[in-house]
């Protein structure tokens, strides 16, 4: 609150004070006290009015300044009244009480929606675990079948299992629970697990994976989450026209505090149009390739980015339309450095 805004708001009070001063001055002059006495009386009234305005401005300025600062700094503004002192003037107390009531209502509403979201997420996770049983049973029954139709059936079951797993990791990515464990993990093993899980899809699409990852390459990550992240990159490459999929590793920043291991997943597929590259990690963004493929959910790379962020990894994508795509996963050696960007 500025002084000019405060005075503008008090225009009527100032006008009344000036009118009273003039009236008192005139009255004193009419009573024959002289011009000096008239001016003095008017000045006393104006001085008292100015003092009252100054005191009022000081009391209000402190409260509104604190309120403005707290509201500007907070993401959840309904906590504002818990961080400022109640004011000592009437309209301020009324505003404070109104804010307090609105904040409590907002907090209660947020808590209720959070509880509903957690209950829904728990149900989804339970449903996913339940649905895995008939999928596993169908896969077991299909394993004895032979022929082109059997191969297609097995492929569709793999796709169903992949989408179910994607839903499970999405539910987990939105949970505050720390249901993952960062441990030293073999990078080559995680890559092989991802390739093995998508082997049938790679074969159907005619994709040849080339794994150039040393057996002694060790990184800090959750093994299951890492295999899932790499699996999403494998599935994307196969879906979008790749014929060769290469995994390679390099070390960066040796001898510095930013030392890290980088896994590069490169393919020779369609590539991503330049206009879509900045948005590939957005939720449900399918882009031109997704519309061209016709079966994209836009969740694969979003989950890659979300899970990498939770594990403290950096992920980046570089692509040129018609020339393929490169995705880089960076694993910091110093686990205390979690200020990595996507």
TrEMBL record:
**Keyword Transferase in annotation:** yes
A GO cellular component annotation here is: plasma membrane
Superkingdom as given in the UniProt entry: Bacteria
Record-linked InterPro entries: 2C_sensor_his_kinase, HATPase_C_sf, HATPase_dom, His_kinase_dom, HisK_dim/P_dom, Sig_transdc_His_kin-like_C
Where in the sequence is the signal peptide annotated? none
User: What one GO molecular function would you report for this record?
Assistant: phosphorelay sensor kinase activity
- Keyword Transmembrane helix in the entry? The reply is yes
Please name the top-level EC class of this enzyme. Answer: transferase
* Segments traversing the membrane: 12-33, 39-57
Catalytic reaction equation(s) = ATP + protein L-histidine = ADP + protein N-phospho-L-histidine
Ordered alphabetically, the record's keywords are: Kinase, Membrane, Phosphoprotein, Transferase, Transmembrane, Transmembrane helix, Two-component regulatory system, Virulence
Pfam families xref list: HATPase_c
Per UniProt, residues of the Histidine kinase domain are: 126-335
Q: What is its EC number?
A: 2.7.13.3
- Supply the name of the protein: histidine kinase
